[in-house]
Design brief:
Helix 6 runs parallel beside helix 7 and helix 9 crosses helix 11. The protein has one domain: Aldolase class I (TIM Barrel, Alpha-Beta Barrel). Helix 6 links the parallel strand 8 and strand 9. 35% of the residues lie in helices and 16% in strands. The chain has 345 residues and is of the alpha/beta class. The protein contains eleven helices and 13 strands. The strands form three sheets. Strands 3-4-7-8-9-10-12-13 form an eight-stranded parallel β-barrel, surrounded by four helices. Strands 5-6-11 form a three-stranded antiparallel sheet, with no helix packed on it.
């Protein structure tokens, strides 16, 4: 059995949050895996002006405090998103708050933007400034903030020049009232503040899969008006499909993993149909292999991100998805990744 497989077995025996912390420590200690073979040139692409060797990225939530982005890039990710970071440190919600739904290849979390805060993340990003690799930062608002739009503005100003892109996360279900910023006048006011505070880096908006009728068009209207560079589709879901089998299925929080694949892909298709071909879209939700990643691309994603599947399949999954995606593109006659974007629509 490969060392990486032993690692997955060991980590899966630990409580989820302890296992997560152990993984971060191993990466910081230089004990992480490496993927040294280059990506197939067919995978090279540009997303909102960001040049990527391949489109398989790590979603926010794993490296909340920007402790190990370079180790994660070395593990094979085409780009890494750290965070979510909030202006002030916060402990997050009471434990337990992270649950493995093994029977469903899923996870429920109600972490609540637990992180060390802006100062800690900024110091680490300043220390890695100038190193290769695409690193973005997921931005959140403090739970007790009196001005949540102001929190995003503070973060954008303070971290300017230290990341390749930023994500405005208003779609976590674990901060009360946060998802309300996705709608109407609140979204318009938020993105106006974001646009005033931003510098030159691309800015994405991360949305929920649980959107009301007409929300896609409203969101895109605001994104266009305030010149954001793209949308990340999607965050975790508050829905609980009847197919869930795990005894943890009724836990409160956001559901991620395999059950999220179909609904998040449908929302992705809706965004691509409404946005047309030019807006950058990043597909997230239930990606657990090359077929799922390829389906997201064909549904309209310019790039993809994953996280939950790593809990069950380990770090070798990154290379499997990257190389399998290249094989599928070639088998279907595509010579460039971007030619397959939205091919199923």
């Amino acid at each position: 059995m490969a060392l990486a497989d032993w690692g997955v077995k060991l980590v899966s025996a630990l409580q989820p949050e302890i296992a997560h912390r152990a993984g971060i420590r191993a990466l910081k200690a230089g004990l992480g895996p490496t993927l040294s073979t280059p990506a197939d040139p067919v995978l090279a692409t540009s997303v909102a002006g960001i040049e990527l060797d391949h489109p398989v990225g790590l979603a926010a939530g794993f490296d909340k405090n920007a402790e190990a982005p370079d180790a994660l890039l070395a593990a094979g990710f085409g780009f890494v998103e750290v965070g979510a970071v909030t202006p002030r440190p916060q402990a997050g919600n009471p434990k337990p708050r992270l649950f493995r739904l093994k029977e469903d290849r899923a996870v429920i979390n109600r972490m609540g933007f637990n992180n060390e805060g802006l100062d800690a993340v900024r110091a680490r990003l300043e220390a890695r400034k100038g190193r290769p690799g695409v690193v973005g930062v997921n931005l959140g608002a403090n739970k007790d903030s009196d001005d949540r739009a102001g929190d995003y503005a503070i973060l954008l100003k303070a971290l300017a020049g230290l990341a390749d892109f930023f994500t405005v996360n208003i779609s976590s279900p674990n901060t009360p009232g946060l998802r309300g910023l996705q709608a109407g006048s609140e979204l318009d006011a938020l993105l106006a503040r974001v646009n005033e505070a931003r510098w030159t880096e691309p800015v994405f908006l991360k949305v929920a899969p649980d959107l009301e009728d007409g929300a896609v068009e409203t969101i895109l209207e605001a994104v266009t008006k305030h010149r954001l560079n793209g949308v990340i589709v999607s965050n975790t879901t508050i829905a609980r499909p009847e197919t869930l089998k795990s005894p943890h299925r009724a836990e409160a929080g956001g559901l991620s993993g395999a059950p999220l694949f179909a609904p998040s892909t449908e929302v992705l298709k809706a965004f691509r149909r409404a946005a047309g071909p030019d807006l950058a879209l990043i597909g997230v939700g239930g990606i657990d292999g090359p077929d799922a990643a390829y389906a997201k691309i064909r549904a309209g994603a310019n790039a993809v991100q994953l996280y939950t599947a790593l809990v069950y399949q380990g770090p070798k999954l990154v290379g499997e998805i990257r190389d399998g995606l290249a094989a599928r593109l070639k088998a279907d006659g595509f010579t460039r990744l971007q030619d397959a974007v939205g091919a199923d629509l």
